[in-house]
Amino acid sequence: MSVIRSIVTGSGSYLPERILTNDDLAKMVDTSDEWIVQRTGIKQRHIAAEGQVTSDLALEAAKGALASAGLEASDIDTIILATATPDNTFPASAVTVQAKLGITHGCAFDVHAVCSGFVYALTTADAYIRAGIAKKCLVIGAETFSRLLDWEDRTTCVLFGDGAGAVVLEAAEGEGLNSDRGILTSHLRSDGRHKEKLFVDGGPSATQTVGHLRMEGREVFKHAVGMITDVIEDAYKATGLSSDDLNWFIPHQANKRIIDASAKKLGIAPEKVVTTVHLHGNTSAASIPLALDTAVKDGRVKRNDLVMLEAMGGGFTWGSVLLRV
């Protein structure tokens, strides 16, 4: 049976030039490199320059993805940008990226699901492609989380960084089999009862301010592993595949302890796990495409590999995407 599949044909990423190490942070708040690495696995993070906004980071990642796919910007008909840190309250930062790329056709919009944003955006793009609404999509995750941090709160300021990643998703025919290239299945969840565990205490309607990120770290950790495994097990049920079939597991890069615990619970071998959190910290919606592009460029992820993507973020939101690249 012939079906429409959404295939990743290119990837790109961008990290700001400025690097903030754990030792740098130890000069700002009561912390240490040993404390941060032991609890999170993070060694450094990148910080956007003054005047550098989310769409600037997204643009560079998008250019890399287009070059990787061998496409011109004019080939793209849809841009979906996952971000919780847009340039402005409106318009959508995706529209700014569209303009900077010189695209005057198609559509562009933002998706806001915090750290799960890229999974949500990828699932949305896949739905557009399968419905015939789009044929070539730019799916981007980009964040400037440094603008939301309370730099006197050592429990949160050590965790996050800025960055962007992107993929090109193109329509292609498949046979409806697990051997098809492209997205095989996606599963999204949310539960708003957990808002107070991870949120920003500001917003245009509530306080007319940007606000700062607030988190109950132990509560987030407690829920993360169970929620992550839930949507991955749903992907296995939908396809009849298992952890043994995976070539790579590319999770949201929030905390190495969460990544390791999730992989262990799911029976995913450590050598199949792509981990980049030590290099850039938690970049929210940017973390999965950053990790994917890193693994593509260093030769780990190859064509026809089976890859599991998963994320959990504030809301709570969480989700998984199983694809063959």
How are the strands of the largest sheet arranged? 1-7-6-4-5
Query: How many helices does DSSP assign?
Result: 10
Write the CATH architecture name of the largest domain.
Answer: 3-Layer(aba) Sandwich
Q: What is the CATH class designation of the largest domain?
A: Alpha Beta
User: How would a textbook summarize the main sheet?
Assistant: 5 strands, mixed
Mean pLDDT rating? 97
Total number of distinct structural domains: 2
CATH topology of the largest domain: Peroxisomal Thiolase, Chain A, domain 1
What is the CATH superfamily label of the largest domain? Thiolase/Chalcone synthase
N/C terminus separation: 20 Å
What is the fold's blueprint, element by element?
Elements: E1 3-14, E2 18-21, H1 22-26, H2 33-40, E3 44-47, H3 54-69, E4 78-82, H4 93-100, E5 107-111, H5 117-130, E6 136-144, H6 154-157, E7 162-174, E8 182-190, E9 198-200, E10 213-215, H7 217-239, E11 248-251, H8 256-266, H9 277-280, H10 287-297, E12 306-313, E13 317-324
Parallel strand pairs: 4-5, 4-6, 11-12
Antiparallel strand pairs: 1-7, 2-3, 6-7, 8-13, 9-10, 12-13
Helix pairs in contact: 3-4, 7-8
Task: Write structural notes for this entry.
The protein has 2 domains: 3-174, Thiolase/Chalcone synthase (Peroxisomal Thiolase, Chain A, domain 1), CATH 3.40.47; 182-324, Peroxisomal Thiolase, Chain A, domain 1 (3-Layer(aba) Sandwich), CATH 3.40.47.10. It has a 5-stranded mixed beta sheet, sandwiched between helices. It has helices spanning 22-26, 33-40, 54-69, 93-100, 117-130, 154-157, 217-239, 256-266, 277-280, 287-297, and strands at 3-14, 18-21, 44-47, 78-82, 107-111, 136-144, 162-174, 182-190, 198-200, 213-215, 248-251, 306-313, 317-324. The protein is built from 10 helices and 13 strands. It is of the alpha/beta class.
